[in-house]
Each structure stands twice: as C-alpha cells, then as structure tokens.
C-alpha cells in the first residue's frame, strides 16, 4: 500500500495545484517565453477527400518540406468516435487516485503504464503532464492489459487505434509519392510496424510561464497522428526560428513527420522541434498515436534519393539502435538524428 500511496503522490492528476511545486520550475533560460509565440500563424491543412490526388500528394510534400507538420481534414475517422476517445480519456484521468495508481510505472520499457513528466528517473526538472502509454499493435496482444475502467475504454480506444493505423498507411503512400518513390515504399521499408499511443493529460497549472507540458523535442518514430483538444491550444512548433501555436481546427488531426521519415527522405522532409505548453485556467488533453518501424529493419536514406548532387546524409542503422540512443539522452538535447550523420 505504501508504494501505491507514493505513486498517487507522483501523479499531477490526483490533486488540484494552487501553487507551483519547485520541481516543475525551469531555470530562467529554459522557460517557454510565451509572449514571443506567434499565435496567428497557419500550419498547412490538407483535405484528404479532395478528388485531385496529385494536388493532395503535392500539398503533403510541401507541408513535410516547409513545416514538418500539417493538419488533415476529411480523414475518414468518424467525428463521433473522436469525441468518444476524448471523453473516455478524460474519464480515465478523473478516476480515483488509488485506481490510477495500480497502473503507475516510471519504467520506460513497460508497454502499458501510467506515468508523469517524460522520464522521471533521469530528469532534474519535471514536466506538467500525466500520460497513459499504451502499445496498440497487434491489438489482441495488448488490449487485455489496458485499463478496464472506464468500462468502455478498451472498445473505444481499440477501434480508434485500428482506424489511425489505416490513416497512417494512407499518409505513407502520399508521402512516398511526393518524394517520387513508389506508393508502397515507406510502408514496406519500415517493416511490420509497432504502434503505440500516449493519452496526455495536462492539468490546470498555476504558473504556465515557468514550466512545460513537454519541452522541445522531435519524435523518434516514423509518423505521429495527434488528436488535439479542440477547445484548448497547447501544441507549438518551431518554424523559421520562431515558435508558432498550432490552433486546433474542428475535426482535424495533426500529423507530424518523425525522425525516421527525415532519414528515409535523406533530409528533404523535416522532423521538427515541437513542444506542449500548459494553461492556467483549463485542463487540456491530447491523444498522440505513433507509428514506429519494426525494431530490426535497416533504415537510412532511400537509394533513389541518393545522387552525386545529394549524397546520403545519414548512415544506415536499425530502429532498435536509434530508439535506445533516443531514450538514453535528455528530451531537449540536440536532434538525435545528428548522431547518425554520415
């Protein structure tokens, strides 16, 4: 019982915070400088239902080149399902502390766990978020260990995981074609992909300017599909040296290129720095779905993209090697891909 009580104490979502605990306060030089964020920038929006396939492919390619991030509308995932995912996520984080504590772990290798911050074993300053980490593929292997409470959790999240995976594969096809590769290139090269998810909960924060939900980082995987809270913004992306706010569009999903697609594109497409900030008057939720290469598959620039004029920027490596390097560093150190340059 003592251990569970200690775990309850670790989680932010088990209490209301009127003052800022010291372990969340960033040094002056590392704070978000919220007054400098560009609030009215536009990140590209791609309509996946457009009948003009070439225009969709071109828009995806442009977004990957210029922003590394884009929103998709008419993506085929039902609005009612999306609303249910957000609702059941909120229900989970509202469960009694002792119920949530059963799932708590600070071991990054655990496939299913409730945790807080990013890597509490290594950090000196914590991030203002709790999150439920779920492995999602193959579903039948992992679902039995998912939370049984709320009762509808497994069915709703399981359905969403299946649909997000299909959407990811459709996006791979457009991304491959936009690089002049065969439509199936990305999916085949990345092997039998793992899939996992983070249901993120960012409680109200008494002093948002002193901390992060998540500090600047790039994603180590191939592709991330983010379901944002459409009432509360918090995602920011680095573009041309400035932090820009990603303002949620109703019904849209936010797509970002992970490190592996930057490597496969030979640096043409960008896995960009992004961060999550928090809010003093409202809690916020997001659901990030990650498509990850098979651990043993060899990754590196597509041969077709290597020429005398554009030699290989990165060496070949396995995802297993990459992921271990990523988790052994701090989140906001230099871009992990820098360690794999030729």
Describe the structure.
This protein has nine helices and 14 strands. A hairpin with a 2-residue loop joins β8 and β9. It is α+β, with helices and mostly antiparallel strands.
Instruction: Report the radius of gyration as a whole number of Å.
Output: 20 Å
CATH topology: Jelly Rolls
Q: Write out the strand line-up for the largest beta sheet, numbering strands in chain order.
A: 1-2-10-7-12-5-4-3
Tell me the domain tally: 1
Strand residues, percent:
15-25%
Give a count of the beta strands, DSSP E runs of length 2 or more: 14
- The CATH class assignment is Mainly Beta
- Sketch the major β-sheet: 8 strands, mixed
Any idea what the CATH superfamily is called?
B-lactam Antibiotic, Isopenicillin N Synthase, Chain
Bulk shape: globular
Instruction: Give the % helix.
Output: 25-40%
Structural class: alpha+beta
Report how far the terminal alpha carbons are from each other: 52 Å
Could you list some keywords that capture this structure?
Jelly Rolls, globular, alpha+beta, eight-stranded mixed beta sheet, 20% strand, four-stranded antiparallel beta sheet, 342 residues, 27% helix
In short:
Belongs to the iron/ascorbate-dependent oxidoreductase family. The protein is an alpha+beta fold.
Describe the protein's topology.
Layout: H1 2-10, E1 45-47, H2 53-66, E2 69-73, H3 79-93, H4 97-101, E3 113-116, E4 130-135, H5 139-142, H6 153-178, H7 185-189, E5 194-202, E6 214-217, E7 223-228, E8 235-239, E9 242-245, E10 253-257, H8 259-264, E11 274-276, E12 284-292, E13 298-299, E14 317-318, H9 319-327
Parallel strand pairs: 1-2
Antiparallel strand pairs: 2-10, 3-4, 4-5, 5-12, 6-11, 7-10, 7-12, 8-9, 8-11, 13-14
Helix pairs in contact: 2-6, 3-6
